[in-house]
Design a protein that fits this description.
- The structure holds two protein chains of two kinds.
- Chain A has three helices and eight strands.
- Chain A has helices at residues 3-14, 16-21, 53-71; strands at 24-28, 31-36, 43-45, 50-51, 79-87, 96-105, 109-117, 125-134.
- In chain A, strand 7 (109-117) and strand 8 (125-134) form a beta hairpin.
- In chain A, 43% of the residues are buried.
- By secondary structure, chain B is of the alpha+beta class.
- Chain B has five helices and eight strands; from the N terminus they run αααββββαββββα.
- The chains are: A alpha+beta, B alpha+beta.
- The A-B interface holds A 14-21, 40-48, 51-55, 57-59, 61-62, 77, 79-87, 90 and B 25-32, 52-58, 63-67, 69-71, 73-74, 91-99, 153-156.
- Strand 5 (79-87) of chain A pairs antiparallel with strand 5 of chain B, so a sheet runs across the interface.
Chain lengths: 139, 171
């Protein structure tokens, strides 16, 4: 684990909501893969055993935030400005994975896309998120 | 059978009578402590109390944005129910969230959602999260939801299923 990975891990360990979700990550250089081990509380629709859109959304927001953090030299995690979530498929009641690409990292803003999948095909995207983060430390 | 307006009124009445169950049957809404506080035609209101385990950044005590996303998503879905003439199930197509300012530590977050247009297949919503009044908005949401025949795609929502039983044949 690099120093930067350790800093990210330390933040996630300290963040109550990240612990509430139980989010984990693996980093290969600056490339991040996040894992959300399934819990019953994530369900939004019991009749079809589907995860709540707000849960997949929160997971993707954290993934995008973590990727911006890893791609930058920020001291503190970036703040979200806005985000758009596309619900492409219903997320089943099982583990969820995600990755993110930072399309633009400027002095003040970062633009990121994050995608979540289930099973072993990352190209079969369940939910996608496009977000802007404030990366200026004085923001 | 009854006229469409009467059916819409009956639908709203049923949802009001079962308001408590609408969010309590959603595990993620329960886990985060969402509470439905009011329903009108095309509108819904809810709140979530500040809780330590919902905080994103422990240094500031600010509730994580993901909690607001879930709240506005859920409430937008509920407000669509009140705007429909017959029971339908819905799935979020997309949701856009703008974060205006951080939620303050220790304060309850209020939310309201409005369904401002419905077509055969899609419902359009706006939603707001704030402290006390809409003057100080924490976040806004714009959502689109795909509407589905409830008999084809079970909703798991008791109030909707009850309404479906009573209104389902009167299309």
């Amino acid at each position: 684990m690099s120093v930067r990975d350790q800093q990210l891990q330390a933040f996630l360990d300290r963040s109550p909501f990240a612990r509430f979700l139980g989010i984990r990550f693996e980093a290969d250089g600056e490339t991040l893969k996040t894992i959300l081990p399934f819990q019953d509380k994530f369900i939004g629709n019991q009749a079809i055993n589907a995860m709540h859109g707000g849960c997949t959304g929160a997971f993707l927001e954290l993934t995008a935030m973590a990727q911006v953090y890893l791609s930058s030299d920020m001291q503190r995690p970036p703040k979200p400005i806005n985000l758009t979530i596309d619900y492409l498929r219903s997320a089943k009641g099982e583990d969820l994975y995600a990755r993110a690409i930072v399309h633009k990292l400027g002095r003040r803003m970062a633009s990121v896309r994050a995608e979540a999948w289930q099973g072993d095909d990352p190209d079969k995207v369940v939910t996608a998120l496009q977000a802007h983060f404030l990366v200026a430390e004085d923001g | 059978m009854s006229e469409p307006t009467e059916r819409a009124d009956l639908m709203l009445q049923m949802i009001k009578q079962n308001a408590k169950r609408i969010m309590s049957t959603v595990p993620w809404a329960q886990a985060l402590g969402f509470e439905l506080t009011g329903i009108e035609k095309g509108r819904a209101f809810a709140k979530v109390d500040w809780r330590e385990d919902l905080v994103g950044d422990p240094d500031t005590g600010v509730i994580h944005g993901g909690v607001l996303t879930a709240l506005l998503d859920n409430l937008s879905g509920v407000c669509i129910n009140t705007a429909l003439k017959k029971p339908m199930s819905m799935a979020t197509l997309d949701l856009r969230i703008d974060y205006m300012r951080p939620a303050e530590k220790g304060r309850t977050i209020l939310a309201e959602a409005e369904c401002y247009h419905v077509t055969r297949n899609v419902a359009f919503t706006h939603a707001w999260a704030y402290h006390e009044t809409r003057e100080r908005v924490i976040a806004t949401a714009a959502g689109t939801f795909a509407l589905n025949d409830i008999t084809r795609w079970a909703s798991g929502n008791e109030a909707m299923e009850l309404a479906n039983k009573m209104l389902g044949d009167s299309q």
